[in-house]
Design brief:
There is one protein chain. The protein contains eleven helices and seven strands. By secondary structure, the chain is α+β, with helices and mostly antiparallel strands. The strands form two sheets. Strands 2-3-1-6-7 form a five-stranded mixed β-sheet, sandwiched between helices. A two-stranded antiparallel ribbon has the order 4-5. The radius of gyration is 22 Å and the shape is globular.
């Protein structure tokens, strides 16, 4: 089976041709729907809007009554082409109506299962990437999925594809904003780095599936320790970053210790019957403005603290030397 690729995706806006003959969901929108973007805005703006509609369809975000009515209208107008349009938006591929419908409902169910398993909402784009990566339905023949398309959409979603935490770019953007706010209102803000000890030797030798499982499990443990205002992200490899607004260094240190103890008590077994292993993490903590007045300074300071913990044998949390802001 071959799949035609079209960019930027039918759901996102106009293109030269469409299986439905409608010119895509948004391109064929009724004029009487107030608040809907017009078809002559940028493709990027249309794509953001249509991704919002898709997220609303699976309950990731709340849609307005007008948006729900708009989706119902387009479902009726497009008929059999509705699900191919949805799948094209997420993957850049055209599938038959039957295959696209099965894929869409499979992704929606997979997202619900991941959300239940992790105890927090998993985004549609991350669920799509994970579902497609583990798809075992030969009739869909998705070996030709446009990986660069999924990477692009994943990046816009701000989520790491393995852990479902914020990705590095999204985390750094949020850190920059929060540091500006903390400086403006003279508030505390602390940054924590966490790294799984001996990850390469212990986990990667057991294969990619086990490594991903460990990262997802660790991310879940970290996520369940956070307050609503906190943000956790996957910074690189087996290293996580946690931003703690309104927390002093002393309180952030105690939070990092909770992360460390909970990981230490967690057993990791990928499959039932596997002998579980136990892992540890090292942590570093730095505070604005004591250890840095901008993102680069604060990141350097917390990295120094993390390395100190690792060099001291791991399974501990360290603070950086007290620094003069601006140095």
């Amino acid at each position: 089976m071959s799949h035609e690729r079209k960019e930027p995706g039918a759901f996102a806006g106009p293109r030269e041709t469409a299986p439905s003959g409608e010119g895509g969901i948004v391109a064929g929108k009724p004029a009487d729907y107030e608040g809907m973007p017009s078809a002559d805005v940028s493709a990027s703006a249309l794509q953001q809007f249509t991704l919002r509609l898709l997220r609303g369809m699976v309950g990731e975000t709340e849609l307005t009554a007008e948006e729900r009515a708009f989706i119902a209208d387009r479902r009726q107008a497009l008929g059999d082409a509705f699900y191919p349009e949805l799948v094209n938006t997420l993957t850049g591929l055209w599938l038959s109506a039957d295959a696209a419908g099965r894929l869409w409902h499979g992704v929606a169910s997979h997202r619900e299962a991941l959300t239940r398993a992790l105890g927090r909402s998993v985004g549609l784009v991350a669920a799509t990437a994970d579902y497609v990566a583990h798809l075992n339905d030969a009739s869909l023949d998705l070996t030709l999925v446009a990986s660069e398309r999924l990477d692009s959409v994943r990046n816009r979603s701000g989520r790491d594809e393995v852990t479902f935490l914020a990705n590095r770019d999204a985390f750094l953007d949020a850190l920059t904003r929060e540091l500006q706010r903390a400086g403006r209102y003279e508030r505390h803000l602390s940054l924590v780095f966490l790294a799984i000890d001996d990850f390469v030797a212990t986990c990667e030798s057991r294969g990619a599936d086990f490594s991903d499982y460990v990262l997802r499990t660790a991310a879940t443990v970290i996520g369940r320790t956070l307050r609503g205002s906190d943000l956790a992200g996957r910074y690189r490899g087996a290293q996580f970053a946690v931003m703690l607004p309104e927390l002093s260094m002393q309180r952030a240190f105690l939070t990092a210790e909770r992360f460390r103890r909970r990981i230490e008590r967690t057993s990791f077994a990928l499959r039932e019957g596997d002998v579980p292993i136990f892992l540890t993490i090292s942590g570093g903590v730095a505070e604005f403005p004591v250890h840095g007045v901008d993102p680069s300074q604060l990141l350097r300071s917390v990295e120094v603290a993390l390395v100190a913990a690792q060099k001291s044998g791991g399974n501990r949390v360290s603070l950086p030397p007290r620094a003069t802001p601006g140095r």
